[in-house]
Specification:
240 residues, two-stranded antiparallel sheet, mainly alpha, elongated
Length: 240
């Protein structure tokens, strides 16, 4: 092969590589749900632009965005986990807006931050970051939520405190609870009871049907029975 043919072949290769590079830049980097491409914390790349607004890049907007369930995770009702995400700021959810964290801070409790609940972070021994979350949901860790309830906060304001269908069923397992039981050294004795009982009571009242309620009660009973070292009476004991 002479030098002229080699140069010609080299030129063709350069053109092909350029076209491939140009094509890759024009591809959509992310898709909705479990088809997210790339990986990072939680198995997906952070996409904080995916919000429950008409301006998100997910291809789904408004109510439809919140209604699209997780492809594999179930909520505490035994149904497809719903998104917790609202707004455009970070809320400790994964890049698709689900409270799906299984490691680290284990943020799984979808909590509606209102003006009355804006003290959540300071009450639980943190900075005042929750003030900036007013008007939006946030995935809280169960340790912080349990401490919040153990201190008697929000007792008269529980109608919309939790977004129950956005809370994964893993939150009612001993494996999950053991990840936060010594959360930030501000724990109160047996606060697990306050946190879980409040969660179950609120979400039981908010359930749409008996199937959801029965699934929730079963998860609750299994969890309680694993903690034989504490006196954990069921909140439903007098109703059976």
């Amino acid at each position: 092969m002479n030098i002229c043919k080699i140069n010609k072949l080299f030129g063709i290769i350069i053109i092909i590589l350029f076209l491939l590079l140009l094509s890759s830049k024009n591809k959509q980097l992310f898709t909705i749900g479990s088809q997210v491409m790339g990986s990072n914390e939680g198995g997906v790349v952070q996409q904080e632009h995916l919000a429950n607004t008409s301006g998100n890049n997910s291809g789904v907007s408004g109510e439809d965005y919140g209604e699209v369930g997780h492809s594999s995770l179930l909520n505490i009702y035994g149904e497809s986990l719903k998104r917790c995400k609202t707004g455009t700021d970070r809320g400790s959810w994964d890049s698709d807006g689900f409270c799906s964290e299984m490691g680290g801070g284990v943020h799984q409790i979808c909590f509606n931050v209102t003006e009355n609940r804006s003290n959540f972070s300071t009450v639980t021994g943190q900075s005042d970051w929750s003030v900036g979350r007013v008007g939006n949901n946030h995935c809280m860790c169960l340790g912080a939520y349990a401490l919040y309830k153990a201190k008697g906060e929000g007792i008269d304001d529980e109608d919309d405190e939790l977004v129950c269908d956005s809370i994964p069923e893993q939150s009612l397992t001993s494996t999950y609870i053991n990840n936060w039981n010594t959360w930030n050294n501000h724990e109160l004795s047996n606060q697990i009871i306050n946190g879980v009982d409040s969660l179950v009571a609120q979400c039981f009242d908010r359930a749409d049907n008996d199937e959801q309620r029965n699934y929730l009660i079963n998860k609750y009973d299994v969890l309680r029975n694993e903690y034989t070292n504490i006196n954990w009476e069921s909140i439903f004991e007098n109703n059976r």
